[in-house]
Structures are given as C-alpha cells and as structure tokens.
TrEMBL record:
Catalyzes the methylthiolation of N6-(dimethylallyl)adenosine (i(6)A), leading to the formation of 2-methylthio-N6-(dimethylallyl)adenosine (ms(2)i(6)A) at position 37 in tRNAs that read codons beginning with uridine. This is tRNA-2-methylthio-N(6)-dimethylallyladenosine synthase. Binds 2 [4Fe-4S] clusters. One cluster is coordinated with 3 cysteines and an exchangeable S-adenosyl-L-methionine. Belongs to the methylthiotransferase family. MiaB subfamily. InterPro entries: Elp3/MiaA/NifB-like_rSAM, Methylthiotransferase, Methylthiotransferase_CS, Methylthiotransferase_N, Methylthiotransferase_N_sf, MiaB_methiolase, rSAM, rSAM_horseshoe. The gene is miaB.
C-alpha cells in the first residue's frame, strides 16, 4: 500500500479586524499552491503564522505572549526532530518589522500585509537558513498578485464570505495606526471584484460582505465608462445570481454619498444594517480626532439614511478617554447615542499608539475614569441593543441559515439586521433563506420557528434584485 501523502501543514491564528480574517484565507490559498494543507491544531503545524493587529496596545501585546508559548512548542518539536517555522504577519509585522524578531528570536519570518504574495519566496529564504523580513509598501501589487485561485480552486467557505474591495486609509484620525500599517487608500478594479464575487457565488456563498478600512471611499471606472462609487458597484454585484444578501464594512461618515444612500432605498439585496462609526459625540473631541465632521453632521446623515431605509439598524465604534476628554465631552457622546439609537455598538478605552499624533497630546484621561465612562456607555448601548432585539419578537423575518446550532436539530442563521437566530430546521436548509417567526430573545440570540414552505417551493429572497439595477 502506498504511504499516505505527507503534506506540510500550516496553522494561522488571526487577530484583529475582518480584513485580517480575509487575508488569512488568502494566505491559506496561496500556501495551498505551495503544498501546505491548513490545520486547526498549532501543535501539529510545520508553519505557524500569527496574523496580528496593532490597533490597541492590548491587541499588539497579545502577540508577544503567544510567541512565548510558541517558543516552548517549537523547542519540544525540535527535540522530536521536527522543524517548525514561525511567522508574524499583519499590522504588528508592518509596524514593528525586524524589531519583532529581535524581541522574540523564535520568529523566522515577518511579513507585512502588502507583501503576502511573496510568502512562498520568503519561506524559501527561511528554509535556506535566513531570517526573512518584508514590510515593503506595494499595495497595488498585492491586489494584482493575490487573487490567483482559479474557479475550481476556490474552496467553499460556507454561506457567507468577505471580499476586500478597498485597502488602506488616507483619513489619518489622530488616534489610529491603520494609515501607517495599511498604507494609502487603494480601490480594487471592478473586473477583479466581479470575478471574485462570481467565484464565491459559484462556491455556494449567499451573503457577501464587501470589506475596506474605508469601504465607502471605494471608487473605480465603471463598465459603462462612468466613474463608479460603492453605490453603483453594489447594484452591479447584486446582479450576480446566488448573491442574495450584500453588506459592506467599515464606512466613514464623510464618504456616505447620495448614490450609496439611494442603494439602501432601492436595492433589496442590500441588508438593512450599517456600521457607521462616529467615535465621539463632542465636536471638540471630533476635531481633535481629525474626523472632519461635527456631531450634528452625523445626526443629519443618519436621518437621511433612515429616510431612505426606515428599518435600518445602525452600529458604531466609540472611543472613551481620548486625550482631553472632559466629563462634558463624554456626556455629549451619551446624548448622541440617545439621539441616534443603535442596534449594537463597539466601544474602547483610548490606547495611545506609537507614531500617531494623539499619542503626543496632553490631557491623558486616568484609567479609572476611562473604565467608568466605558461602563456607562456600554450600559446605554446594551440597553438599546436589547430594546432593538426585543422588537423582533413576534415578527416574521427572512433568516439565512449558516451552520448547525448548539441544540440537536437546530440551525444558526442571521436576520437581515445581523442578529443571530436559532431555529429548528433540517441541515439541508443550510445555505437557504427561510421565513421565520421569532418566538423569543434568549440573551443575545433570537429563537424562532420556520414557517415557510419546504425548500425549493419558496422563491429566493431578493430574486428581483437584478430588475432594479440601473
Ligand atoms: N476604519 C474604521 C476603523 C478601524 S479601527 C473606521 O474609520 O471607523 C476599529 C475601531 O478601533 C475604530 O473605529 C476605533 O473606535 C477603535 N480604535 C482605533 N484606534 C484606537 C485607539 N488608538 N484606541 C482605542 N480605540 C481605537
Ligand atoms: Fe483609522 Fe480613521 Fe482611517 Fe478609520 S478612518 S482606519 S479610524 S484613520
Ligand atoms: Fe488591526 Fe490592522 Fe485591522 S491594526 S483592526 S488588523 S487593519
């Protein structure tokens, strides 16, 4: 009998935002072509990659404690004659470069987000005994080189998928490392986006989330010869058969143009949920953050979006304790939250990041004050989220079934508003959209009952999206 094929195995641990999740999948694809099979067990991997996040100090420090554990594992493997290669990718790699290998000698490889297409070559360098560090900024090259997988190679990753359409950021909010770790704003061309969207649809994806650090700054030359923004692009992507649901993240308030707002009104496939970070409700703090808009501008924008799509659920990011934030500034943030009414929100204590302008500002807010403000803010948004989720009870809604649930015979899906929904349904319903009546809210999960006709008898939700395209 032939010996079983021994393939090299790669384990990737992903930190940070959806962009990193997407990049990890693409690295998995690129390495598959190089003979690596993915594994979810770090202790059996020949190559361990940490795809890292630099956004807050805590996120960056996690990497070093993980590298401490990996050093022990690598030494154990070496004793049994197995060599493990250790790499750091992502935003810490970009920000700290060779410094990482100095601080953690276990690291063989440091690769920034713009250089993943060079991974196979860099692994070759490591194999020949060199330490490889690459943090060049050539983002266009990344877009040109990475979407290599052919139609047949694209592995199905389930019912939902991310697709990066834009990378980098030119906004330079004074607290943020992203413009430094991800470089200048670059939009991916329409043809490449449509090609990847079609491949994902063919592989069984029903819900596509378009990604970008500033996704609504995306722009490109349209197929009709006109300049397109994200609104036009969404209409075009919705024509692809199979893609029943579209989302996009993360948006900047200043880039919400009329065409995009109109898409929320006219494009049924565009789900009624929008992550629109505002960070603060104080004009003084917004100015110090370089957000380039006032609290009232944001509230007017929310009104326009709600006029286009009245049932839209909004979410946001908030930072408490930005340098100089007074109690009055913080209360302005609470007032903005009261006025907008969020379906969910993410909130963070300010973390000074090396190299950012805010890190040089006076007026540091005490840790205890930050903790107290964060708790008050979270209590308010939690109450709003709970009230929002409660309005779902008793309603009938479309649920996209994504995976088996915890209970026997149960599936987990998502509502149009991104709420998790648990429903008793047969496994063959995964990948389909069902009509569900919501019976209860159990902590943060909706629990419902399937009320639609059997699979196949129900027309695909949003089947008419193509008719409404421009
Ligand atoms: N591009 C997105 C945000 C990317 S970072 C946008 O503009 O909204 C995700 C969130 O992390 C930010 O919205 C912000 O709330 C938070 N964040 C970024 N830098 C931070 C810092 N230095 N300290 C605390 N939170 C931060
Ligand atoms: Fe960071 Fe601001 Fe750019 Fe968002 S818009 S990535 S917060 S600099
Ligand atoms: Fe973190 Fe980089 Fe994303 S810093 S949030 S992984 S862009």
């Amino acid at each position: 009998m032939a010996a079983p094929e021994t393939k090299k195995r790669v384990y990737i641990k992903t930190y940070g935002c959806q962009m990193n999740v997407y990049d990890s999948e693409r690295m998995t694809d690129a390495l598959a072509a190089d003979g690596f099979a993915p594994t979810d067990r770090m202790d059996e991997a020949d190559l361990v990659l940490l795809n890292t996040c630099h956004i807050r100090e805590k996120a960056a420090e996690k990497v070093y404690s993980e590298l401490g554990r990996i050093r022990v594992m690598k030494e154990e493997a070496a004793r049994s004659g197995r060599n493990v290669t250790v790499g750091v990718t992502g935003c810490v790699a970009q920000a700290e470069g060779a410094e990482i290998a100095r601080r953690a000698p276990v690291v063989d490889l440091v690769v920034g987000p713009q250089s993943y297409q060079h991974l196979p070559r860099l692994l070759g360098e490591v194999a020949s005994g060199r330490r490889a560090v690459e943090t060049e900024f050539a983002i266009e090259e990344k877009f040109a080189a990475l979407p290599k997988a052919t139609r047949s190679q694209t592995r199905s990753r389930g019912v939902t998928a991310f697709l990066t359409i834009q990378e980098g950021c030119d906004k330079f909010c004074t607290f943020c490392v992203v413009p430094y770790t991800r470089g200048a704003e670059v939009s991916r061309p329409v043809a490449a986006i449509l090609d990847e969207a079609r491949r994902l649809a063919d592989a069984g994806v029903r819900e596509l989330t378009l990604l970008g650090q500033n996704v609504n700054a995306w722009h490109g030359a349209g197929e009709d010869g006109r300049a397109w923004g994200l609104g036009e692009l969404l209409f075009r992507i919705a024509e692809i058969p199979g893609l029943d649901r579209l989302r996009y993240t993360t948006s900047h308030p200043r880039d919400m143009d009329d065409a995009l707002i109109a898409a929320h009104r006219d494009l049924p496939a565009l789900m009624p949920y929008l992550h629109l970070p505002v960070q603060s409700g104080s004009d003084r703090i917004l100015a110090a953050m370089n957000r380039k808009h006032k609290a009232a501008d944001y509230i007017r924008l929310v009104e326009r979006i709600r006029a286009a799509r009245p049932d839209i659920a909004l979410s946001s990011d908030f930072i408490v304790g930005f340098p100089g934030e007074s109690e009055a500034d913080f209360e302005a943030t609470l007032r903005l939250i009261e006025e907008v009414g969020y379906g969910s929100a993410f909130s963070f204590k300010y973390s000074a990041r090396p190299g950012t302008p805010a890190a040089l500002k006076d007026g540091a807010v005490e840790e205890a004050v930050m903790a107290e403000r964060l708790a008050r803010l979270q209590a308010l948004v939690d109450a709003q989220a709970d009230a929002f989720n409660r309005t779902a009870v008793g309603r009938v809604m479309d649920v996209l079934f994504e995976k088996p649930g915890r209970g026997p015979g149960q599936l987990m899906g998502r509502s149009p508003w991104l709420q998790p929904v648990a429903v008793e349904a047969p496994p063959e319903r995964i990948g389909t959209i069902g009509r569900v009546v919501i019976d209860a809210l159990v902590t943060h999960t909706l629990v419902g009952t399937l009320v639609d006709p059997p699979a196949g008898a129900w027309p695909a939700q949003m089947a008419h999206s193509a008719e409404t395209a421009p």
